[in-house]
Design brief:
The complex is a heterotrimer of chains A (about 160), B (about 100) and C (about 675). Chain A is mostly helical and about 160 residues long. Helices cover about 75% and strands about 0% of the residues of chain A. Chain B has about 100 residues and is an all-alpha fold. The chains are: A mainly alpha (about 160), B mainly alpha (about 100), C mainly alpha (about 675).
Chain lengths: ~160, ~100, ~675
Amino acid sequence: MTLIQIAFLVVSAVTILAALGVVVGRNILRNALALILAFLGVAALYVLLEATFLAAVQVLIYVGAIAVLIIFAIMLTEGLMKRGRATNEQWWVVLVASALLAAILIFLVGAVEWQVTSAQIGGDPIANLGRALLTTYVLPFEVASLLLLMALVGAIIIAREREEA
Amino acid sequence: MIPLSWYLTVAAILFSLGLYGALARRNAIAILMGVELMLNAVNINLVAFWRYITPQELIGQVFAIFVITVAAAEAAIGLALIIAIYRHRQTINIEEIDLMKW
Amino acid sequence: MLQYSWLIPVFPLLSFALIVLFTNRYKNLSARLAVGAIFLSFLLAVGVFFTALGIEEPYRSAFSWFPTGKTSLEIGFMVDPLTAAMLAMVTTVCLMIFIYSLGYMHGDRLYSRFFAYISLFTTGMLGLVIADNLLLAFISWEIMGLCSYLLIGFWFERPAAANAAKKAFITTKVGDVLLLLGMLLLYFQTGSLTFETIFEAVNHLPPNIVLAAGLLIFAGAVGKSAQFPLHVWLPDAMEGPTPVSALIHAATMVAAGVYLVARTFPIFTAVQGHPALVPVAIIGAFTAFFASTIAVAQNDIKRVLAYSTISQLGYMMTALGVGGFVAGVFHLITHAFFKALLFLGSGSVIHGVETNDMMEMGGLRKKMPITFWTFLAGMLALSGIPPFAGFWSKDEILSHAFDHNQVIWLVGTAAAFLTAFYMARQVFLVFFGQPRNTEIHAHESPPVMTGPLVVLALGATLLGLLGVPADMPILGPLLGNNPFHHFVGEAFEATPFNPQVMGISISVALAGLALGWLIYGREPLAAGQPDPLERLGPLWVTLKNKYWIDEIYNATVVRGVILLGDLLFAFDFRVIDGLVNLAGKATVAFATLNERFDTYVVDGLVNLVGKGTVVLSTLNELFDTYVVDGVVNGVGKAANTLGRELRLIQTGRVQNYLLLLLMSLLMLTGIFLYQ
């Protein structure tokens, strides 16, 4: 067991536990905070995968924007913090199904012979990424920007307070 | 060297957890959080595959970036919707939002 | 010439056809057509006659007419001396009568029809004479019978005439049937109807057959020639116009019977001893005497002549019966002339005085001279006074009879006496004395009528000279040694010359005439004076009533036939109709049975079927309601329920949907993994 492996194990354990904390529990705010922790764990995993830029992006956007947004929403919709249970009627079926899914996936992962290469990342990853985004993948890039614009406008419109009843 | 399957296993577990959260929780926002988890798990898969199978290509990262982008947009919209619904129905219990039922 | 002899009957046939089809409306044309046709026949017949004088063998021409299995019926004509002589006589006499009719029938409404009928009749007679086989002869025979009926009943509106026609037809038909039987017998025995063949064949047939055939043929002759007992039609036939009487009842039809016997003579002579001829002679002689007795007591001018004809025909039969073939034929020919003459003469008288009753006549000698003189000639011929024709022929018969059977000769001679007597009576009653009916204004007939009288009178006078016996001194050789015999009957015995018989004949005739003069001539009867013979009392009455034969026939034969008819009718009515009705009743009963059966059984079955069907349909309905509808409704309900249940899937909650998705995905994955 190398150092990296141990590091990985620790990070994975944290992430998984955090995720667990997201889906279990009645207090929605605690769920949100657990989510943040999960995000951070995923970012650490990206680092381990030598996708440093992506780790940065993850933290920036997920933790910095999305999680904040979620907490805002929680604040604005405080109704459900105290009453009822956290799960719905079908939670046990879902539990079984999800567990089954997990089992199947893990089995599959183990069963398949991945064609792993031991090649290294070439060149300057960030520069390459930027160049790629603006040349090879310029279309999705532009579409994505359009999408963001629409989301922006849409969110404002949807969440806008209306005067009439 | 961390085997690829470890990453994939983690991703699978995360995905399943996220799936449970999306399907079994009553709070709309909690459902959204489950969805975010699932997206993250997918992203881990993508990057892991990129790193271990085609590190020369950039497609893996690019894809992951776009997933994040879309997730962000979607979270924004979703939450906006939830707020709007909350304003109308005074609830975010997903069980009560079933106008499209039989 | 002889090959055209078949035309002789054809000319009148053509004129008949033309008149009937085309010229019926044109009276004069029709009459002239008829006369012209008979004239042509006459010319041809005369030609044939003279040609036939020279031939050795009879001329025959026949052709196959009707195939009948192995053989075929032949039809054809034959000319031998007998035929030739007959043809000449018939056409001559007919021609005279036709011409006479132009005047006598003048003004009659059915003038054209008359000539048509007599033309057809002439065809029949000529056809009979010229036939070479029994079939053609019989056909001609029947044609004559038909025309006789038509002509006797020419004035059919008169009941007497109509009845007379029927009587003639039926009476002769009795004979005709027997003749037909004879024909059939001969045909079946010999396989042919041709005279020549039959004459040859009868020599080899059993005598009884030949005798039977001969008797049957003679029976036909008895009917046609009005011999006893089938004579009753002839006097009544006087209802017809006088030319008809002359034609049919003097010259031709009645002669046909005699001719037939003469023609078929070989059949009669085929058997040893000639047994067939015995009844011929007996009936002939009896009839001759019998009829002459009746003639004595008749007042109708034509009836006297009718009975006279019967009597004379008896003479001819007698002649044939005693083997005097030539004598019989000779008398046939001479009789034709003088009897026709007498009839036409009486017609002339009737035309003049418009009555038939001799008691109403008288003193016509001065008023109708030609008629008188010609009538006188005829009377003398008939009475048998030489040198008139009748004497020679009658004497020949009596001579033969004398040689053959003296009883017959005696009967014949007695009849001759009576013949002379009643003819004298007739002449004196009609022509002598004062007219008994002063209302009548008699006048002589026109030349068209008196002309033929004269011609016939010549014949009656002179024809006899052809048959003078060869053995007679002086006259015989002078007159060619009996050319008639030589011509007609070469094969037969020569006519014997018997001076005694001749002498007796002459005396008897003269005696008869004398008696007639004694009673009727010396003091001619005045008007209203009864007939002197009435003093004979019952005998007179019997004779006058013709021995009541007609009454006897009426009571027996006629009644018998009517009775038979009634019986058969009753049988038909009771039995046959009874059977028919029974069949009808049976049918009704059957129908009723049928109806019952139909109602109870058939309808019962049908109703049962109906009920069954109702039950079936009820079952069907139940089945339909519960099962089928149940199924259908069930399906509906199932769908309903299914829908109701399944729609609960639509919870409206996304999480549920997603869960389903997830589960499906897992299942698919599971399946995938297991493959």
